[in-house]
């Protein structure tokens, strides 16, 4: 069996995000079939927003903004993790 290296790698759709360790229902999951390059680019964009939101939230004492950045970073991590899984297949 040969593998076509020109076929773009895609997300596998196995990464789930749970709100906390005790929760058994995922808050969100990554869909399969997203080109890994696109998922990684989007994760990078999200992390740029996280960086800005965290800085503003801390300097302004806005805990709500910091928590929003926390959840947004979890989405970016899920994208990166699933793209990594897709790159291995």
From TrEMBL:
Protein name in the entry: DUF3077 domain-containing protein
A Pfam family (short name) is: DUF3077
> Which InterPro entries does its entry note?
DUF3077
Q: Which organism is it from?
A: Pseudomonas fakonensis
């Amino acid at each position: 069996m040969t593998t076509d290296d020109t076929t773009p790698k895609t997300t596998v759709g196995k990464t789930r995000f749970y709100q906390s360790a005790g929760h058994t229902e995922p808050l969100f999951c990554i869909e399969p079939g997203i080109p890994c390059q696109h998922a990684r680019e989007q994760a990078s964009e999200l992390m740029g927003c996280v960086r800005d939101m965290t800085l503003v939230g801390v300097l302004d004492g806005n805990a709500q903004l910091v928590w929003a950045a926390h959840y947004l970073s979890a989405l970016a991590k899920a994208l990166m993790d699933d793209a990594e899984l897709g790159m291995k297949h």
